Every structure is written in C-alpha cells, then in structure tokens.
Amino acid sequence: MKHALKRAVFAAAILVSSNAYAASELEALKNQVQQLMDRIEQLETTNKEAPVAASQAENTEEAAASASSNEVRKSARTATAENSGNPSISVIGNFTGQRIRGDGGVRSSSFLPLSEAEFIFGANIDSHARLDVTVTAANGGMAVEEGFITAYLPWGVNLRAGRKFLPVGRVNEMHPHVLIYADRPNGLVNLFGPEIFIGDGVLLDKPIFIGDSVQTLTSGFFSTENDVAFDPTGSAQYAALARWTGLWDIGDSATFELGANYVQGKNGIATTGSMTRIGGGHFAIKHQNLAHAGFSLEGEWLRRWQEQGTGVSTAINDGSYLLATVSLNRNWHLFSRFDYSREYVPATAGWLKESAISAGLVWTFSEFQSFTLQYKHTRNALAEVAGDLGIAAGGNANAWYLRWVVAIGPHGAHPY
User: Comparing C-alpha atoms, which of 299, 305, 301, 300 is closest to residue 317?
Assistant: First the structure.
C-alpha cells in the first residue's frame, strides 16, 4: 500500500509540474510529498508495534489475574467463614415403608413410617476449619450419627477428627437418603450388620492431581463398636485404615473411578489371636449428558477375615454388589442391583452362599423430594440378612420398599 501511494503521489506531482507550475511551487509540492511519505512511514511503524504492545499488555493482565486468583484462593476460606456464627441447618425426613413375605409364613409390613429424620448442622469455624454435625432421630431415640471437625492443613492435606462414616468401599460413607435404592446392600449387611460402619478417630486425606485425574490417599486410626465385624459385645475396639481412590475423565461427559481399601484391628472376640482384617475394592463408570440422561455401572467387593482366637479357624465373609442405573432425564431413573455374599464355615470347611436381585423406579420430583419403588428377592439368606428380614437363616424372601425422602433447608450436593 505504501509503494502504491508513493507512485500515486509522484504521478500527481509530475502531472502538476507539466502543467506550468513554477519552480518554487514545485519545490513546495516536493516538500509536502516528503512530509506525506514520512507520515506514512510513521503510521506503518505504529501498526507493526501495536500487536506486540497488545500481547505484552495481555501477558501483563494474565499475570495480574493469576496473582489475583492466587490471592483469592488464599483468602477463600476466610471469605466462606461468614456463617461461622450462624450455621446452616437442614432437616431430612426418610419415610420408608416395606412389605416382606418370606419362608415359614413370615409376613410383615409398614406403610411410610418416618424411619429416620436427620438434623444437619454445618458451618466454617474460621478460615482453617469446619464443623459438621448430623443428629438422627429413629425408633423413638436420638443420637449423634456424625460429628467431626475438618481442618485444612498445609500441602492440601485435610484432617477429619470425630465421629464419621468410615470410607470403606463405596457405599458405607454415604447417608441412606442419597442412595438411589431404599435398602442397604445385603453384602454390607452381612459384613457390618444393618447399620452403617462408623468410627471415632482421625482421618487424613490428600488429593493428588495428575493430568485429567485426581488420586486421593486416605489413612486413619479409629475406634469402633461394630458388633458384627469387631466385637459381639459392642465394646470399642481400635483399628487402622488405608485407602486409595482414583477418578479419571474418559470424555466430555463420562468418568471412571477405581479404589481399594484395607482395615485392620483387634476384634475383642478372644484375648489373643483375634484380629479382624477387611480388604477390597470398588469401581464406578458414569455417563451423563447436559439433559441429565445417562447411565452408570458401579460395584464393590469386600472380604472380612475374622480371627476367633489362638488355634481357632478364621471366619471369612465376602460381600459384594453390582448396580446399574439408567437416567431417562432429570426426574426419572431406573436401577437394578445384584447382591452376592458368601461365608466360610470352619466346622464344615465349606461355603454358604447368598444372592439377591433388586429392581426399582425413582421419581426425583425436585432437589427436595424423591420417591423410590423397589422390589428385592433374596435367596439362601445368611444370618445377618436373615435377621434383618425377619426370616430363618437359609430362607428366601420377597420384599417391596416404598420410600419418600424430603428435605428442608440448605444442604450440600450429593456425593458424585
């Protein structure tokens, strides 16, 4: 463009000069042309330098934004401590009715009783810690189901101290109302009893971000009064826990989770030679699009080795489940679950085996209400499941569940 403009200016100058301009006028015109050319050079230089200056400004803005972001992260917990004097409170009601028909003429039913009410209190203490307490009301009594402090330590380590659902497998640390089904998987009932496996102690976890994945390492030391896995008398026994969980992105709308855990502690059955060890793993594959339609497949397997004393054979129990869910949209969901358990009987050196199949439909009316209709058929029930269903060990049973869960007040998002 510069050269074309120069040629045009020179052509105009020649044309004008050929039309009888005086020498002095021609000299003045040359000066004007030179000034015009200098102006063009200046404009071109400015245009070349502009992108560089813009890039430098952009980099400066990014650096400033990064610094600002770091500052925001440093002060985030301070900013979220505004409710330290006014904790969030929510109430969740779990109304679960059931109809059971089992061998031996067993008949039992209930229609939507308030099986459990949860009162949840939570708040940031300050920028370094948070307190969460869950009080449950069930069977005419109230108790602290969970109550723990979360401290945010350096290097991204979180410390939880107090009473908490133990992170063993995938389901145990979840509250019943967040599960898509209405009952507790038979495998977990056979391993820990019908109640959630709870411990009082300290847990440390450290998330590690590697590429598109997050790996979480957890360790802990706790006491537990679980009377199925540790002490039949319900006395407190001490145990240690180690756990690893990895979560990977496998697309824009799908994830894969894999984990393993190990628990070991004295079980109190005998004075010596009575140790309980629990090990196993879990997995989950989830896919969901923006319309909340998708599917998931998850499962876990746990084995419990329970020493009965010096010179006495060790009892072994396996508990597992496989769950498949289909989300039609935000509101309607289908699920099916297969439970499998087995128990080693030292007296006969053989295995007793139990299986169950469930299917159900869930209507999530809103974030604050959901309805679940579920059917389950259990075959050859082991002792713990048999006691929970009210049938004889080794018997079969059909069970229907109808659950209505309601929530009022603020409450956190359900675990992923």
Answer: 305
201, part of any domain: yes
Check whether residue 99 and residue 40 sit in a common domain: no
Question: What Cα–Cα distance (Å) separates residue 264 from each residue in 168, 199, 230, 306, 415?
Answer: 12, 13, 10, 10, 26
Last residue of a domain, one of 22, 52, 68: 68
* SS3 state at 107: strand
Instruction: Decide if 94 contacts 119 (C-beta within 8 A).
Output: no
d(CA 47, CA 51): 8
**One domain, residues 33 and 170:** no
245 three-state secondary structure: strand
What lies within 8 Å, CB to CB, of 368 at 6+ separation is 406, 407, 408
The separation between the first and the last C-alpha atoms of the chain, rounded to the nearest angstrom, is 61
Q: How far apart are CA 351 and CA 14, in angstroms?
A: 111
Domain annotation covers residue 73: no
Q: pLDDT 10s per residue in the chain (416 long)?
A: 444 444 444 444 443 444 444 455 556 666 766 776 777 667 666 655 545 444 454 444 444 444 444 444 444 454 444 566 678 899 999 999 999 999 999 999 999 999 999 999 999 999 999 999 999 998 888 999 999 999 999 999 999 999 999 999 999 999 999 999 999 999 999 999 999 999 999 999 999 999 889 999 999 999 999 999 999 999 999 999 999 999 999 988 999 999 999 999 999 999 899 999 999 999 999 999 888 899 999 999 999 999 999 989 899 999 999 999 999 999 999 999 999 999 998 877 789 999 999 999 999 999 899 999 999 999 999 999 999 999 999 999 999 999 999 999 887 767 77
Contact 369, 405 (CB under 8 A): yes
Give dist(CA 288, CA 415) in Å, integer.
15
Is residue 414 included in any domain, yes or no? Answer: no
The pair of three-digit structure tokens given for residue 369, joined into one six-digit string = 């209400």
